[in-house]
Amino acid sequence: MSNVTVTTWSLEQTAPADLLPAIAPDGDVRIVRAEVPSPEFSRFLYASVGGDIRWTDRLGWTYAQWQEALDRPGVETWVAYDRGTPAGYVELDAQDDGVVEIMYFGLIPAFRGRRIGGHLLSYGAARAWDLADRWPGRAETKRVWLHTCSKDGEHAMDNYLRRGFKLFDTKVEEEPEVATPGPWPGARAV
Q1: Closest to 128 in 3D by CA, of 24, 20, 13
Q2: Which of left, alpha, beta for 113 (phi over 0: left; psi -120 to 50: alpha)?
Q3: Pfam families annotated for this entry (predicted)?
Q4: Which end of the chain is more exposed for a tag (fewer CB within 10 A), N or C?
């Protein structure tokens, strides 16, 4: 098995005013919180969004591992729907001292390039900033952060920067090259 060089960038916002929202896309695009933790649904989103860009770290998780991750206080999944069809999601993870990580964010391949991503990221970052309002006892959010890497979509970094995230760390590492797990070849809209 060969290795591939992967660059990982960490970005952050340190105040709600840092967020530069995108314009909402045309059409019937809605963003809804999946309030019932569902390992099946979360695994579907994870595999559907990340299958073509080699998201593999959670693919081997058991049902119990998914349930445990989703049941943690301050974990939220927000799903974008285009005319009733899941188009992508953002997963928030409340951490200590008022820090919220955008753990996962992305669109199913057929929905990329429609201006849904900027809108979903804007909405997800706003929900990270007001997360304590929905979780009594959580500290008010003081920082929202995420990481992206050279394996992610070609427009990912630009989207983060346009939404007001600032780069604070860069790492370059060698990783084993893994096959794209799916969902299947050619799963893009025409």
Answers
A1: 13
A2: left
A3: Acetyltransf_1
A4: C
Confidence band (pLDDT; 50, 70, 90) for 1?
confident
Give the pLDDT score at 67: 97
The pTM of this model reads: 0.93
172, pLDDT greater than 90: yes
CA–CA gap between residue 11 and residue 184 (Å, rounded): 31
Helix axis angle, 63-71 to 39-50, nearest 10°: 100
Of 21, 136, 44, nearest to 91 (Cα)? 44
Q: What are phi and psi of 155, to 5 degrees?
A: -105, 0
**3-state SS, residue 123:** helix
- Rounded to an integer, what is the distance from CA 104 to the centroid of its chain? 3
